[in-house]
Amino acid sequence: MTFASVSTEALCSWLAEATSLDIHAASVTIDGNDLFFVGRRGVDLVAGQVHAPGSIPILWGRTQAVTAPDAGHRPLTLGEADPVNAAALRDRLAWLRPMPCQLAKSAGTGDRLGIATPGHIGAFEAVARTDADGQTVHPLFPILAQQSIRENDRTGRTPQEVVDDAMWGVLQCGWQHGYGADADHLKEPADIDVCHAAGFTFFTIDPGDRVDDEANTCDMATVQHKVAALDWAVLDSSPTDLCERLAGLSLDLGDRSVTLSEEDVLRAAGKYGPSLSHTVRMARHLADLCGDTPYDLEMSVDETATITSLTEHIYIGAELRRLDVPVVSLAPRYTGMFEKGVDFIGDLDEFARSWADHIAVSRHFGPYKLSLHSGSDKFSIYPIAAELGGDLIHLKTAGTSYLEAVRTIGHLDPDLMRSILAFAVDRYPEDRQAYHVSAELDRMDPWRTMADRDLPSVLNDFHTRQVLHVTFGSVLNDPELRPPFMATLRSGAAKYNELLISHFIKHLQPFV
Fold first, then answer.
1. d(C-alpha 423, C-alpha 414), whole Å
2. Closest-CA residue to 80 (of 59, 96, 55)
3. CA distance linking residue 330 with residue 122, whole number of Å
4. What is the pLDDT of residue 4?
5. What is the pLDDT, as a whole number, of residue 489?
6. How many CA atoms lie within 13 A of 282 on its CB side?
7. CA torsion angle for 335, 142, 126, 399 (degrees, to 10)?
8. What's the distance, Cα to Cα, between the start and end of the chain in Å?
9. CB-based burial of residue 478 (10 Å sphere; 0-12 exposed, 13-18 middle, 19+ buried)?
């Protein structure tokens, strides 16, 4: 006997009675002769399996006997939402495993708290459309697990916890349309190792520390010295060979063409050659780990002082292709300012011209997607990027979900939000050193004298957003603030999800 003839509503009602849990209806999944689900006891997530008599449950937990509707006497096992049970469920249910997105248009929704995935999924569902055959189409592939080693250190989370937390959200929502896991800003091979072991499928190599901005302006003798010192064994070339291949290369941009001079090539190599060779070493290490298993690879040089020019992108794209580095996306340093948590700062016409050039290069040497790092809340450039980029876009967001968490706390516990704001103000002078931000403390909205009902609106203020954004690690590591911060969000999950869905629809809608 199976559960196939029983409605989800009836199964949820029975499971709630049998377990005393608040059952997440979308999670109820029939797989073969077993039924899987998750529910809550208070704020704690609990996993469940109803299985065949005499069979060994895949979940580690406590088993009781139940009488299941249309399925007879069955054992029911309840277990904690822990790493052991997460791994067991991924082994059994393929749709719970992260997967590569390759060249599909995609968006990453970083979750620094481990509880935002249901809200993120709600936004992806909201922007889905129906095709001519009545089928639901999801135009953006979601990267639901996304965090850097830097953010792991600041939040006290491990790469495995990042993947597991996203997976529990996927199961809770019954999302069976695929999702990815981005190990962001990887600096060293050891970073790749721990993230690969955790099940990440998207690997963002960040060699930005090796970008030599001096090559833009120093004299040519110095440039030539920098180029001669590159790791030519890894680059499988030589300065002479490089110039013979790329000097004089012309690229058709549609409305015009660009031709690289020898100086263009040497300056580009002097600036990006060290980061390119490091990317090659990291990519080869990753390829050895993954073997025949597909994965996504991104190269990110966005967090640098000077923009990536058109000729520099041509150098990077040509060399990545020659060296057979299979990037699905690249994050150059774009024109303008991509500061944390606020809209684009710069000339929109200039951005449009530059973006069109970068897209032309990515199409020619790939195709690969252009990645919008620090992409949160850059609402003014989304229509431009979408119109000119087509499907060759990856949007990467992170801290904006944390900011919506603080907004949620403002609705639910204004006193706690005031404590967070006061703490953030004290920490900002130090914490800002790791970021390119321009917020000024004395220009923040007057949150100290603001009425409680108006307090969440300070999240709309440029200066307040950045102050809160860059101090997230300090707030989450403070023993006085973290417990009430997380408790308020867990008990107010419905409000947090509501705000996340509304906020992320504004991020995703321009790209669908």
1. 14
2. 59
3. 28
4. 76
5. 98
6. 27
7. -50
8. 43
9. middle
Q: Which of 161, 264, 298, 302 is catalytic?
A: 298
| Active site (annotated) includes residue 324 | no
Give the integer Cα–Cα distance in Å for 138 and 135.
10
Q: How confident is the model at residue 71, as a pLDDT?
A: 67
Does the pLDDT of residue 369 top 90, yes or no?
Answer: yes
The predicted structure's pLDDT at residue 72: 82
Helix extents (H) in 229-347: 232-235, 239-246, 262-290, 310-322
Task: Collect all residues with Cβ–Cβ distance below 8 Å to 219 and sequence separation of at least 6.
Answer: none
Six-digit token string for 39: 């529910």
Structure tokens at 271: 């600036």
* Marked catalytic residue, from 184, 206, 303, 377: 184
- 43-68 CB burial, b ≥16 within 10 A, e <16: eebbbbbbbbeeeebbbebeeeebeb
Q: Identify whether 426 is a catalytic site residue.
A: no
Q: What is the pLDDT of residues 182-211, one digit of tens each?
A: 999 999 999 999 999 999 999 999 999 999
User: In Å, how far are 122, 209, 435, 478 from 422, measured between CA atoms?
Assistant: 32, 33, 20, 13
Instruction: Report the predicted TM-score, pTM, of the whole model to 2 decimal places.
Output: 0.97
Cβ(50)–Cβ(74) below 8 Å: yes
Percent of all residues in the chain with a pLDDT value above 90, rounded to a whole number: 95
Residue type, 112: R
Instruction: Residue count of the chain, please give it.
Output: 512
Q: What is the pLDDT of residues 473-494, one digit of tens each?
A: 999 999 999 999 999 999 999 9
